Amino acid sequence: MRDTKANRSDSGIVVFVRFVFFVLTFFILLSLASRIIVPKSNRDLLYFNAGGIFSLPKNSLDYVVIGNSNAVEGFSPLDIWNGFGYAGYTCGEPWQNTAGSYYMLRTILKTQSPKVVILDTDTLYERKSTFSSLENDFSIAVQHYYSVFRYHNYWKKLGFSDFLMKENYTWHHVDYGHAVLTKINAYNGSKYMASTDRVQKMTPQMEYYLDKITNLCRDRGITLVLVSIPSPTYWSMAQHNAVAKYAEDHGLNYLDLNLNYQDYGLNWATDTRDRGEHLNCYGARKVSLYLGKYISENYRLSGHAGDPAYDVWNKDYASYFKYISTAAPTN
Amino acid sequence: MAYNSYLYIVVFLGLTLLLYYAVPKRFRWIILLLASWVFYYLSSGNLIIYLLISTASVYICGLWLGRIIESYENAKASVPREERKAFSDRTARRKKLVVFLALLVNFGLLAFLKYSNFFADNANTISKLLNLNVLIRSRRITLPLGISFYTLMAASYIIDVYRGKCRADKNPARIALFLSFFPHIVEGPFGRYDHLAGQLYEGHPFSYRELTFGAQLIIWGLFKKIVIADRVNIVVKNIFANPQAYSGLFVILGVLFFTLQIYAEFSGAMDIVTGSAQMFGISLAKNFERPFFSRSVAEFWRRWHMTLGAWLRDYILYSVSLSKWFMKLSKFIKSRLRSGAGKTLPTIIPLFLVWLFCGLWHGASWKYVLYGMYYYAIMAAGMLFEPLFSRLCSALRINREGRLFRALQLVRTFILVNIGMLIFRAPQTGTAFSMLRSVFTGFNLGVLTNGALLKLGMDIHDYYVIAVGCVIMLVVSLLQEKGVSLRERIAEKNIAVRWCIYFAAIFAVIIFGAYGAGYNPVDFIYAQF
Predict the structure, then answer these.
(1) Is residue A39 one of the residues assigned to a domain?
(2) Domain edge (last residue) among B163, B182, B203
(3) Rounded to whole angstroms, how far apart are CA atoms B350 and B357?
(4) Across the interface, which of A6, A139, A148 has its CB nearest the CB of B209?
């Protein structure tokens, strides 16, 4: 064997010190890469339109909605604004699980201090094996702390200005995170949410992250509300029972909008875009107005109707309303 | 648990290493065995039972064989001379019976789990052709992780004991560790008991060199898998999922990219697992030796998936060609055919079984049988026509060791291997032929300039990454071919240069890797066998 530096027997302390320095340097470089290789415009941050929240004035929101595509397509902050004067934003990611919700909430709380956080309960049930789910959670955590793992593909758009690390968070999403979809594809399946005592437990990881969300909200004085958005495909009575039990045990409010959808006028023939998986904008309006009423009756939010600082919300609502009133529903 | 996942690299491997070096040397094998079983259980759940059955079966049969051999050795001297042959024959029959039992359990499980639906489908087709009213139902069977690998390793152990190459091990833990060792259970390399069992069992001292060299190999493997293989997968998947939509250069690109994908991925996986083992001071067998520098298909298979080739040679080719019945057949052929064919045929016949096994080992479908037969046909033709070709070259005064000739041989091998890859990757055998035909019917150089290649799922930046990645792989291969040990060379540099190289490699994987949003996770191809 040749006499190379690696072959020479360094003392254990030297090796250890070298290892510590190597790891430290690695994390410093990782932090630096996470500052450089990240979109500087909030348009490209997070998924769907969640990045729009960064353009809003600090601490300007009364509530936020966190969840996956069910939340993004099923909640319309502008309808709640128009009906009740509450300012909110829907922050959703595709296939978001509870770990994703937790880290999303931590990201949001860096710039906003909402009084109410609404968590879409579909994130509590991940359609993955326990082990894949564990891998996914680990990856989400790594991406949260070192964003280069999430935005590494941004190297393709990297310019000189990126090295100055100046952020440009001016992109404004006019629907406040809501994906306004006019497509109609009716749900013709059988009735769901039949009464049962069966309980579909959450996985320990999901429950662990739900506990973390609950504790985070409690520590910050935020009211956490668990909400199940109507979806015959993704929701069941067994899941309802599990969430209801969790809410009861932890003193949380739980609102399952699947139970009484007829009460607020949801019609599966017209209010879903993909046969019951997701709501379209017509369904989202009904859900949002009902939810707004629930918030106004249960939580003392002062709201911002008439506040000149929130004029843009009125303008955005006007164009949103014009769009959904005039856009022809598609199939 | 994929070898390229955060959980494997950061958590599993890291924790196992910490525990391994934290306990006294004599207990280190326990950490490896527990880690291997945890790894298997996390990846395959209750299917670990099949692994345990294989372990128990070869352990018991090995002991049984050992006792037969031992009692034969002890009694041999005391047996009267006239009874020795009968005694020896009786012992040989008993040994064969035990080997048969062990192989029956192990290959029986493999046949049931991997091939029962294939057999059922073929039986149903035959039944339909013969108008028999018999229908065997297909079952949904989940294949235990690495069963194609550990079954062959279990068989190699029992045959080695039978042949006297190694002694039957009385320690079940050593056998369990040999079969389940987490770096090689998913996709090899196939280890041999005499080379590996001792290494796994003995506690290795901490070595800075082994640790850093192993880590370097892991990073190199991750680069090949995540930066190159997973990126070209986008185009490969696109073209092979819609073969009717593509022809000409698209098909050529699809096949070339698949060859690149499988090479970068499989050799990358070998780097990751060999590096992982090296961090524990364990050396795994080499599985790749720059196969695309091969001058013939036969040489290619000596450099590609080398441990499978060696297994097929030692346990199928030799078992057949050195058997008594085949020796007789071989003698008969040689006596009847005085020409070169008389010498070649006895080699070609057992090769048929080797390639049939090789094809079927890769998967339970006729496509893989064709894949094996394709290589068999090329090699058999090469052996049969070699004398004729040799005479032709002499007559035409072609220097077979000349540079040009060698370059042509490399190109020829590369083309033949790519056709093999097309058969391997095509969804069905018919599709492989139609894709091959479409190369000539729809050839259009215009796709190189009209932007069509950018509509396959990769943008121009991705093509740049692939090009640079290929150049790096080629340079590394050329240096290795010249006998340069890159890791030794890096180790000779001062710490600043070394760290620059390490960080450049790590961040190349993190930044240029094809993972996360916009990419679907790609399972290791050989992990599905």
Answers:
(1) yes
(2) B203
(3) 11
(4) A6
Q: Which residue in B has a C-alpha nearest to residue A141's C-alpha?
A: B6
Strand A88-92 with A116-120, pairing: unpaired
Q: Are residues B279 and B325 in the same domain?
A: no
Instruction: Report pLDDT digits (tens) over B393-407.
Output: 889 888 888 889 999
A287 CA: distance to closest CA in chain B (Å): 30
Question: B510–A149: do the CB atoms touch at under 8 Å?
Answer: yes
State both tokens at B28: 């280190």
**CB proximity A27 to B under 8 Å:** no
At A40-76, the pLDDT tens digits run: 999 988 878 899 999 999 999 999 999 999 999 999 9
A331 domain-assigned: no
**Number of domains making up chain A:** 1
pLDDT of residue A8: 52
User: What's residue A3's pLDDT?
Assistant: 43
Distant-in-sequence, close-in-space partners of B382: CB < 8 Å, separation ≥ 6:
B296, B297, B298
Mark whether B349 and B475 lie in a shared domain. no
B45: phi > 0 → left, psi -120 to 50 → alpha, else beta; which? Answer: left
Whether B197 and B227 share a structural domain: no
8 Å CB contact between A187 and A261 = no
Q: Find how far residue B188's CA is from the centre of its chain.
A: 6
How confident is the model over A162-183, as pLDDT tens digits? 888 888 899 999 999 999 999 9
Q: Which of A6, A142, A152 sits opposite B491 (nearest CB)?
A: A6
- Looking at the structure, tell me whether residues B128 and B212 fall in a common domain: no
B291 found inside a domain: no
Say if residues A244 and A200 touch (Cβ distance below 8 Å): no
Residues B169 and B101 in one domain: yes
* Contacts A10 to B, Cβ<8 Å: 208
Residue B157 shares a structural domain with residue B196: yes
Q: Rounded to whole angstroms, what are the CA distances from B309 to B160, B293, B348? A: 17, 17, 16
- For B174, the token pair is 């050593």
**Residue B248, in any domain of the structure:** yes
Q: How many domains does chain B have?
A: 3
Q: What residues in A contact B459, CB-CB < 8 Å? A: 156
| Structural domain range at position B369 | 297-425
Q: Is A1 a domain residue? A: no
* Residue A87 near residue A302 (C-beta atoms within 8 A): no
CB atoms within 10 A of CB B148: 21
Q: Residue B259, class by beta-carbon neighbours within 10 Å (0-12 exposed, 13-18 middle, 19+ buried)?
A: buried
Residue B509 structure tokens: 């994987």
State whether B6 and A4 contact (CB < 8 Å). Answer: no
Q: How far away is chain A from the Cα of B213, in angstroms, using its nearest Cα?
A: 9
Q: What is the CATH number of the domain that holds A46?
A: 3.40.50.1110
pLDDT tier for residue A11 given thresholds of 50, 70 and 90: confident
Q: What amino acid occupies position B101?
A: L
Q: How far apart are CA B73 and CA B484, in angstroms?
A: 48
- Across the interface, whether the CB atoms of B208 and A15 are under 8 A apart is answered yes
Q: How far is CA B9 from the centre of its chain?
A: 22
The complex's ipTM?
Answer: 0.85
Q: Check CB contact of B325 with chain A, cutoff 8 Å.
A: no
Q: Give the one of B491, B493, B507 whose C-beta lies nearest to A33's C-beta.
A: B507
SS3 for B329-373, per residue?
HHHHHHHHCCCHHHHHHHHHHHHHHHHHHHHHHHCCCHHHHHHHH
Domain final position from B203, B219, B236: B203
Question: How many whole angstroms separate alpha carbon A239 and alpha carbon A198?
Answer: 8
Residue with tokens 């109609």: A184
Instruction: Give every residue of chain B whose pLDDT is below 70, as ranges.
Output: 338-340, 528-529
The answer for A 130-189 residues in CB contact with B (under 8 A) is: 131, 134-135, 138-139, 142-143, 148-150, 152-153, 155-156
In a domain, A284, yes or no: yes
Same domain as B147, residue B87 = yes
